[in-house]
Amino acid sequence: MNPIIRLNNIEYSYPSGQKAIKGINLEIYEGEKIALVGSNGAGKSTLLLMFNGMLKPDKGSVVYREKPVSYSRDALRELRKRVGFVFQNPDHQIIAPTVFQDVAFGPVNLDYSEDEVSRSVSEGLMYVGLSGFERRPPHHLSGGEKKKVAIAGILAMNPAVLVFDEPTSALDPASSESIMELLDELNQEGKTVIISTHDVELAYPWADRVILMNNGKIITCSRPAGAFSDGKVLRDAKLSKPVLLELYDSLFEMGMPESEKLPKSVLDFVHMIENKINPGVNCCEECGSIYLIDADRLGDESLKKYLEGDRIDFVGAMGSYAKKRAENDGVDLNFTYGVIDKCLLKAISGRNSLIITTGGMVKRVTDRVDEFRDESGKFVNVVSHDDFVVMF
Amino acid sequence: MYYELLEDIAQESKIRDVNPAVKLILGLGCILICISSDGFLTPLAIALSISLITIVLGGINPRFYLKLLLIPLGFAIFSVLVIIFIRNSGDVIFSLDLFGLLTLTVTKGSINEGVLIFSRVFGGMCSLFFISLTTPATETFTLAKKCRIPDFIIELAMIVYRYIFILIEEAEMIYTAQLMRLGYGRKKGSIESFGMMSGALFINSWESGERLIGAMDARCYNGKFAMLGEQKAVFGSPLILSVLYLIVFLGVMFFTGDIDLYGGIIQ
Known about the structure:
The complex is a heterodimer. Chain A is of the alpha/beta class. Chain A contains 16 helices and 14 strands. Chain A has helices spanning 44-51, 73-82, 90-93, 99-109, 114-127, 143-155, 173-188, 200-206, 224-227, 231-236, 243-253, 266-277, 320-328, 339-348, 361-376, 385-390, and strands at residues 5-13, 19-28, 33-38, 59-64, 67-68, 83-86, 161-165, 192-197, 209-214, 217-222, 289-294, 314-317, 353-357, 381-383. In chain A, the strands form three sheets. Chain A has a six-stranded mixed β-sheet, sandwiched between helices. In chain A, strands 2-1-4-5 form a four-stranded antiparallel β-sheet, with helices on one face. Chain B is mainly alpha-helical. In chain B, 70% of the residues lie in helices and 5% in strands. Chain B has helices at residues 6-12, 20-36, 41-57, 62-86, 108-134, 137-146, 151-180, 187-218, 236-256, and strands spanning 92-98, 102-107. In chain B, strands 1-2 form a two-stranded antiparallel ribbon. In chain B, strand 1 (92-98) and strand 2 form a beta hairpin. The radius of gyration of chain B is 24 Å and the shape is flat. The mean pLDDT of chain B is 84. Chains A and B meet through helix 2, helix 3 and helix 4 of A and helix 1, helix 6, helix 7 and helix 8 of B.
């Protein structure tokens, strides 16, 4: 497979002469979730600005789909159409006096017709859950909402690669989680997502590949478990270990036998410990079920109906549309992020849960449950939308 | 936030959704009637009725509205006092000798003129407040485009509009930071702090300008700016009501044009 973006031996100095990037080689493949992790001043933002040609490297080349970027006006336009960049501070990105005009900025400049513009704007806003905010001025929005407007502005241009500089900085935990969930959703639809962050807790469970940067260079580039397990490298990069790995290391030092795979989530960890305590006990009759509802196919029916009776203990929603739907129907959500893992956790303790979701993400639930079954040998029953609806 | 901008209130107005063209027609129509009226009754009646419209239909807090009105009316009262004492025409009502240096005289004519000017200002201000408290700037850009105002002016206005708020926010943050470190404790310090804030704001705006170009380029800027789509909003009935309102007051203007406070005609 050919990389979608390749950086060849990139070097860059600030106008003041200080070297920011000192020879970086990097290949990014289509559909990857990449986290660029480094301390302040490691050169993350500078490197990200290379991806859509905002900065031109002093040495080396940027290659997009096998074609080196030529930095002519037309080539840059073409590149920026494919590679969307979301700035760290949404106030730097939001230009227009209303949400609609700002989200429409890209599409209009890409010469979309009027219908296409309004369609891509409403799609972009629906994605981030801000439908109905069209006529609001940006200074009337909260920080999280501004960030979402900035993201919608990029989504409306429908790029193949999305680059986020510090997507969750200055956001409260709930907004950060919903942004990360959104990034997952976008990745699920086939977009390549690159983020920069110094939050290791955020990068560790989310990324497919972690790139540790320090002082303008890449230190390691590997799967999250590998990148975050070497204490010395992390200390050099002025970063800390994710709590889960720290916990795992401590338990390991206290004499817990090593597990073949490092835990990536609370679910993994619980399962790992359970295995160590009762090895070989895999009783499936205790496991609860996960029920699925596809909010797209629900039509006008209220979700409330499906929550009647005491079959379901917990309710979670995935995706902005499903969450909005649950809110409209007055359904109290127990989980709004990390939904599948949390439902699996409840399932192994014998409780049933309902996941409200939409279209493409249904498959993600079944995939994750299958993966979990292969890893743990526990069978969690997933009841599909059709089977579930028939019960009523 | 320590301040309340008229724009913010307009965004929350209850008649925000009425077509901005209608609101502009009503407001500007009222202003025209006010300044062309020869009698003081019409502008006063317009002032009262349009204030009622702003407060009741627009959902503006009456206390806030009165406070807002006090600013221009304060100026108007002082100017009118000067006019009353300086203009001399008709019978003398009252005369005051100031230490033999200056004689202040109030005549019937000057009272009439003062009252007329005051009522015109009052009516005009109320009409102006009606526009600014019910029509957010964001809604007028589309209208400007329809009126064939050149694109570059509208685009500039839109960017200026957006950045005014960023600048205000930044100024507020700098001011707070200075205040917390006692920057405005003494007179000399206040002047220095204010200068420092102005300088910082200038540099910030400069940087914002450069960032703006970057942000626009990052989204393939090609000389185009999206306009807010036409509102599906109410158009018909408010227009008819506004036109009726204006016609009624035009009528009032014709029939009350020669009524003066002191019966005389301004000379």
